[in-house]
Design goal:
It is a peripheral membrane protein. This is MHD domain-containing protein. InterPro entries: Adaptor_comp_med_subunit, AP2_Mu_C_sf, AP_mu_sigma_su, Clathrin_mu, Clathrin_mu_CS, Longin-like_dom_sf, MHD. By secondary structure, the protein is α+β, with helices and mostly antiparallel strands. Helix content is about 20%, strand content about 40%. The chain is built from nine helices and 23 strands. Strand 3 and strand 4 form a beta hairpin. The protein is globular, with a radius of gyration of 28 Å.
Length: about 425
């Protein structure tokens, strides 16, 4: 069960626009909303859901507007909030800015949108690409084409019929971010891989795509347990993926949206060998100067190369007169960040580079701040994944039988990648 009514209020709580979907609620109950919000603010007890008698207010604030849904039933809270945030997204895609003025300028259009996105309190078509096919900014297209597109009445609500491309192409990017925290005594405290598969699809018609990965569960169920495979955790799919099919035989089968989208995301909590290892020796000389010796080592295979590597080394707030010496790359002092950034444009696997930095310090010692900031590393390694995930195949099935060659890229980059120093 979802919302009975939806309102858009200004910052003072005045109703700008509203839509009653179920007719089971007194619409004037919204007058109680703003006093309740102010009361909660005064108590310091703000919550996104406020109960008044047998009515629940679910709300989100955007700029100077409140978007409020009301319900008397036992509503699906996650669904209601997902709908309100989707509504903000739709309005933004239509009006570019969402504020009082854009609501006042687009009353007719907003009512048309509210009629389409929800029916009797249940969310319907919320894909702005599909909505824009038959609800245009001038709002007149409905008179010319009263029949909604197939996507609205079809099970495939994220793709329109009749898409045509002269050249059919699919681009697939496997992007993995490495989160790593290393203690000052070189122990890995936390390591995790967060991955996603992004797609750009330029295909004609209504194609069915099937993606095969070296998924451990699939390999074990088909007697290939000893082959190199990956155990994916916390997998989340785009709505186009047929979940029953995946749960049944681990096949990722889908009719893709047109253009760019994220097909899936996953996580692996696993011991990751640090791809770029950084060691630091920091020497303070009688409060007058400080010296840094930093060693960076790439611990991945020689055939791979990390691009645009940045090693961010924190320095004292009162440091000045920097001098640098490096075996490779370039250094710059960034006083506003109290850091030295050592940049290495291209860092091949199995290499080791050194950097020395020397700073003067004022004669009066600055107070030590609690806990030293860690060294941070930024990088991007193309044609490489830490998890070992592989796209085994991407089959494209379309009734016209055209051929399209998928292009697959792998990229590993830093996530929250930190090494603590002594």
């Amino acid at each position: 069960m979802s919302a009975s009514a939806v309102y858009v209020l200004d910052v003072k709580g005045k109703v700008m626009i509203c839509r009653n979907y179920r007719g089971d609620i007194d619409m004037s109950v919204i007058d109680k909303f703003m006093p309740l919000v102010m009361e909660k603010e005064e108590e310091g007890n703000m919550t996104p859901i406020i109960q008044y008698g047998n009515t629940a207010f679910f709300y989100t604030k955007y700029n100077n507007l409140y978007l409020v849904a009301t319900s008397k039933k036992n509503a699906n809270v996650a669904l209601v909030f997902s709908f309100l945030h989707k509504l903000v997204q739709i309005f933004m895609e239509y009006f570019k800015e969402l504020e009082e003025e854009s609501i006042r300028d687009n009353f007719v259009l907003i009512y048309e949108l509210l009629d389409e996105v929800m029916d009797f309190g249940f969310p319907q078509t919320t894909d702005s690409k599909i909505l824009q096919e038959y609800i245009t900014v001038d709002g007149h297209k409905l008179e010319i084409a009263p029949r909604p597109p197939m996507a609205v009445t079809n099970a495939v609500s994220w793709r329109s019929e009749g898409i045509k491309y002269r050249k059919n192409e699919v681009f697939l990017d496997v992007v993995e971010s490495v989160n790593l925290l290393v203690s000052a005594n070189s122990n890995v405290l936390r390591s995790e891989i967060v991955g996603c598969i992004k797609m750009r699809v330029y295909l004609s018609g209504m194609p069915e795509l099937r993606l095969g990965l070296n998924d451990k569960v699939l390999f074990e169920s088909t007697g290939r347990g000893k082959s190199k495979s990956v155990e994916l955790e916390d997998v989340k799919f785009h709505q186009c993926v047929r979940l029953p099919r995946f749960e049944n035989d681990r096949t990722i089968s889908f009719v893709p949206p047109d253009g760019e989208f994220e097909l899936m995301s996953y996580r692996l909590t696993t011991h990751v060998k640090p791809l770029i290892w950084v060691e630091s020796v920091i020497e303070r000389h009688a409060h007058s100067r400080v010296e840094y010796m930093i060693k960076a080592k790439s611990q991945f295979k020689r055939r791979s190369t990390a691009n645009n590597v940045e090693i961010v080394i924190p320095v004292p707030t009162d440091a000045d007169s920097p001098k640098f010496k490096t075996t490779f790359g370039s250094c710059k002092y960034v006083p506003e960040s109290n850091a030295v950034i050592w940049t290495i444009k291209s860092f091949p696997g199995g290499k080791e580079y050194l950097m020395r930095a020397h700073f003067s310090l004022p004669s009066v010692e600055a107070e030590d701040v609690d806990g030293k900031p860690p060294i941070e590393v930024k990088f991007e390694i193309p044609y490489f994944t830490v998890s070992g995930i592989q796209v085994r195949y991407l089959k494209i099935i379309e009734k016209s039988g055209y051929q399209a060659l998928p292009l697959v890229r792998y990229i590993t980059q830093n996530g929250d990648y930190q090494l603590r120093t002594n």
